[in-house]
Amino acid sequence: MIAEVKPTATATLTLDGVEVSFTEGETIYEVAERAGREVPTLCYDARLEAFGGCRLCVVEVDGMRAPVASCTTPATAGMVVKTTTDAIEKHRRTLLELVASENRENEVDELRGHASQELKSLLDRYEVRGGRFAGRQSGTSNSTDDNPFILRDYDLCISCYRCVRVCAEQEGDHAITMMNRGFEKQITTEFNGILKDSACTFCGQCVQTCPTGALGDRKAMRAESLPGEVEKTRTVCPYCGVGCSVDLLTKEDRLVGVQPAMDGPANEGALCIKGQFAFDFVQHEDRLKMPLVRDEDGELHETDWETALDRAADGFKKAAGEHGRHAVYGVASGRAPHEAAYTMQKFIRAGFGTHQIDNCSRA
After folding, report:
1. What CA–CA distance (Å, rounded) separates 141 from 21?
2. Nearest-CA neighbor of 38 among 112, 126, 149, 137?
3. What whole-number distance in Å separates Cα of residue 95 and Cα of residue 321?
4. Which of 74, 70, 73 is nearest to 59 (CA)?
5. DSSP state of 319
6. What is the pLDDT of residues 62-78, one digit of tens each?
7. Closest C-alpha among 148, 142, 139 to residue 105
8. In order of start, what are the domains of the chain with their CATH numbers?
9. What digits encode the pLDDT tens for the residues 153-192?
10. Structure pTM?
């Protein structure tokens, strides 16, 4: 018996003078975003539970005494919401001034991470610069953490908690957390140690969600001084059969970094340590550019593809001829497309008459 699927309840509210519909369970922020309203935020990541910490997304709701955080306030039928008023915009500008005054710098290279330009974009949008509230600063950079992947520049931290939440909610690692309060508040690992001694798997999720560049991609940052503009090219990670979508970062003809695609259907912004950081092989001086065959002198020598393929075919024939068809075993690569996997199994089954074929993805 097929269970009856009940339609999701919908209702309407008034958003900046326009009646819009919404689905039960949506927040005001989600409704506003879908309606094309640019409500600013620094602590929001659509993949995470709403936190309501930055207070930039506050809106006015008729009947409520004070503005409310739109990311944590459920939409209800009949609501009258104003996302932009003089008072709200003044509130947002003041908050941004406070943030800008506390940070060591507010303009960082986009190579630091996917979301690293969010603060700068908001400062430009509201024409805000630091200085008016200049004074004591919080956050202490961890210069002793010598890991090769993640820069921990906490002088730029605004305690949005996104890195901590993505580590816990998306990765399930719980490798980092917050300690202390006020100006002593700090992102930390257990016992305030280095990342290599923590539960960190170096997936890079914390880097890519950071809106200020306080956490940075050290490998990509090596290219900050290289000439050329950063260009992004969408492709699929080659490391396994999951099919994670990634954006390759290039400067001129050089690959300088990798970022996860936040809208990737297989990964939704997540990557493993290999997909995130293991790209140096692309331009490594030891990477093979031509096929090699071993000559009578016992050494490997460069040759053309026809010669190499003929040599490989002769080797298969010799093995099967001397030891029988079960002397050949095929393992298809999870990095190859379906067509290549199909060809591989036909090669073993039809070519050698054996079912000794497997795929590394099955492991």
Report:
1. 45
2. 126
3. 77
4. 70
5. H
6. 999 999 999 999 999 99
7. 139
8. 10-84 (3.10.20.740), 96-283 (3.30.70.20), 292-362 (no CATH)
9. 999 999 999 999 999 999 999 999 999 888 888 899 988 8
10. 0.85
